[in-house]
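Look at one record.

>
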Amino acid sequence: MNELFKGRTALVTGGGRGIGAAIVTRLAEEGATVAVNDIDEEAAERMAAQVGGLAVPANIAHEEQAHAVVERVERAWGGLDVLVNNAGIGFRGTLADHTPKIWHKVLSVNLHAPFFLSRRAAPLLAQADGGAVVNLSSVALIGNVGQVAYDVSKGGLATLTRSLAAELGPAGVRANAVCPGFVDTPMLAMAEDLVRIGEKHVRTQPISRFGTPQEVAAAVAWLASSEASYVTGQCLFVDGGWIRS
């Protein structure tokens, strides 16, 4: 692979497993020094050790912990070039099942945390030569049955991406989002009903299979790299052709 990120630093949230681990691996393979955040301290340390990076475990749904993660990266490396807001949780249930506690929990991880991290990291990214934010949204932003909090969080994250692009662009910072479709991950496997829906749905797509974490990671790496230097405010759907208009 090309060392597109040689000499550059990256912070990946939710990097201990699944898509996050694939992103950590891809960025490291392309030369980045990677800080791995995860609420699971063991998973963060394991992935950081695999790539020779920095483990920064924390519950980034809490503003003070999110800020502490960025501050630890700054102390270790003196700056930050790439922020990947990947951490996310889901909930399957009817509208009535979505209690205020569940609603707040999903939005805190999926939307509030990327805001906290982006806000704290923005000055560091502005000091970098070509700073970039990549957010992991989802095709769920179109709205679906049985996951209203998740859908709203991912739609909000897409809008946050466009707002960051507009505000941070003059400082030389790009912001984009990747919107995966059905991807074969542990998070998906835990939702048996969603797996069944996915198996039925992907048969209708132009590319009729589940995606892989590595395919999503490739899109993230491209958007974060200098090869996408004129791309900002975009939502790139990595979904087998699910969204075609």
DSSP finds eight helices and seven strands in the chain. The chain has a mean pLDDT of 93. The longest strand covers residues 174-180.
